[in-house]
Design a protein that fits this description.
This protein is mainly alpha-helical and 154 residues long. The chain has a single domain, classed as Orthogonal Bundle (Arc Repressor Mutant, subunit A), CATH 1.10.10. The chain has six helices and two strands. A two-stranded antiparallel sheet has the order 1-2. Helix 1 packs across helix 5 and helix 2 packs across helix 5. The C terminus is likely disordered. This is MarR family transcriptional regulator.
């Protein structure tokens, strides 16, 4: 819990230093927009961000007012509005990436190169759901997957 607070505090500091006028939620929306090949619908953004569509509308309103995104009509369906990054939005996104990189460097500064490598392997294992940091493999037949698991039938 202390690490989580430290990470958030450092990231917030690096974002505030750049004075982008972007909230963490808006930052997440900008990063999400950057992953689309073409401007997405607001419903697509809501699904990707796992929020209700109304929340996306509020975020887009703020980003549009600051010139970072714009609403554009869908070329095939006039009832659909798509959201695209503006040049200012792309510039802000680059600054956001730089701020996040600076924050990561500050967070990882106390670790040696070997410790960073070990941490990377451990985090990869957690994200991928692997054990022991190696490739995911099934235990031999009849062997418990974990010490608390019953033996597998042959």
């Amino acid at each position: 819990m202390r690490l989580t607070r430290r990470v958030h505090r450092i990231q917030k500091h690096h974002l505030q230093e750049r004075n982008l006028g972007v909230t963490p939620a808006q930052s997440r929306l900008l990063r999400t927009l950057a992953h689309y090949g073409e401007p997405p619908r607001m419903a697509d953004l809501a699904a990707r961000l796992e929020v209700v569509p109304r929340a996306v509308t509020t975020l887009v309103d703020g980003l549009e007012a600051s010139g970072k995104v714009r609403r554009v009509p869908d070329p095939t369906n006039r009832r659909v509005t798509r959201i695209e990054l503006t040049d200012d939005g792309l510039a802000s996104l680059r600054e956001l990436h730089a701020a996040r990189r600076s924050a990561v460097e500050e967070i990882l500064a106390p670790l040696s190169g070997d410790q960073r490598t070990a941490l990377e392997d451990l985090l990869d294992a957690l994200v991928d759901g692997r054990r022991g940091g190696g490739a995911r493999t099934a235990p031999p037949p009849g062997t418990p997957a974990r010490p608390s698991d019953p033996p597998c039938p042959p």
